[in-house]
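#help-structures

NK: newbie question. if I give both the sequence and a SMILES, will the prediction place the ligand too? trying with zinc ion
OV: yes, paste both and it writes out the complex. here, I ran yours:
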Amino acid sequence: MPEQKIPRIDGERLWHSLMEMAKIGATEKGGNCRLALTDLDRDGRNLFVQWCRDAGCSIKVDKMGNIFARRDGRNNDLPPVMTGSHLDTQPTGGRFDGVYGVLAGLEVIRSLNDLGYETEHPVEVSVWTNEEGSRFAPAMVASGVFAGAFDLEYGLSRADADGTTIGEELERIGYAGTEAVGGRDIHAFFEVHIEQGPILEIEGQTIGVVTDAQGLRWFDLTVFGLESHAGPTPMAERKDAMAGATRMADFIYKVAHDNAPLGCATIGSMSVFPNSRNVIPGRVDMTIDMRHPDLSTLDKMETSMRAGIDKVAGDIGLTTTLDRIFCYDPIQFDEGCIAAVRDAAEFCGFSKRDIVSGAGHDSCYISRVAPTSMIFVPCIDGISHNEIEDAKPEWISAGGNVLFHAILGKAGLVA
Ligand SMILES: [Zn+2]
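OV: that's the protein plus ligand as C-alpha cells.
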C-alpha cells in the first residue's frame, strides 16, 4: 500500500501536546518535576482531562485517582480497548517518561475523530496514579490496586516522607474519585513508552515490540558494626560497617555481572551512621534493586547475594538485616497483543525488533487482568529519569502510529 494511503496520527500535534504538558513542572535543565499528587500533578491532570473533554471523551476517576477518558464505540456493552501510562515524574525527570504514553493515547482519539472513524469497541485512555514511586513507595501502586496486587486500603494509606498519604492528597487535589478500582473487563491494553535503554537507538530500530518485562526485587540491607575512634582502633580490631558494606556491594555487582546482560543490580542509596569523618561507621543502610527476566535466574541471584552478604559479615564480625520489601515476577505479555503491535509496525513500514522491558511499567500489573503489551521507541542515548531525557519527533510520531493501528486492530473499525 502506498505510504500516503495509510491513516496516520498527527505527529506534530502529539509533539506539541507533549511540550505543552512539559511546561507544568518544567525544570531549569529542560526536564520535569511533577511528583505524584502535588499541585503540579493536579495541574497536569486537569490539562489532560480538559483536552479529553475537548475531544468528546467522557471522564471517570476511580478511588485510587486513576483517570479513564472514554470514546464510545458502536457497541458500548463491549469491553474497551485501553491505552495509557502515567503523568507523574521523578524529581529530576524528563518530558517523555509516562506522559508520552498518556498523550499518545489522546492523540489516537483525536485522530479517530479527525478521520471520522467509528470503532466497534469503546477506546479508553488511562492515567495511572503514582507510577514512579518516587514520592510514595511502592512504584505502580495504583495500577497494582487496579489489578488486585494490593488492596485499596493499602494503596490509599501509602505515605510520603512527611507522612502524608495518597488518600489525603487525592482528596486535597480533587482526584479522589468514586469509581471502584478495577474489577472490569478490558479487551486489550497497550502502553507506548520510551525505551529507557540504548538498544533501539544503537541498532537503528524505530519500534521495540515488547514481549517480556524483567522481574524486579527491592531489598533494604542494614549492616551493623561498632562505632569507635578512627585513630586508636587498629584495623584488625574494627567492626567497621562501611568496610563490610563496600565488600558486600562489590559482591552484589559481581552477581549481576555474572548474569549479564539481562541481569542487573543497582545500589542507588546508601546512608552511613553516624556519618562523621573520624568515627568508624557503626551502621550502613543501603538499597538494592535486582532484576532479571527469568524467574529461576532471579531466584539464584538472590540466593547468591544472600550467601555473599553473610560471608562478608562473618569475616568481619558484623551483623546484617536484609529485607525484601518489594518484588514482582517477570512478565510475558499477551501473544495476541504482541502480534497486534508487530503487525501495526509492519503495516506502517517501521523498522522493529523484539525487546524485553528492563523497567517496571503499569502494563506489568495490567497484564494480570487484561491481554497487554507495550510499544517502545528509542530515547537519546538511552537516558531517562534525567532532565536531559530526550527523543526525536519522528520516533514519537512512529510510536503513536503503531499505537493507533494496534488499537484499531483490537477495537475493530466499523466499515
Ligand atoms: Zn514510565
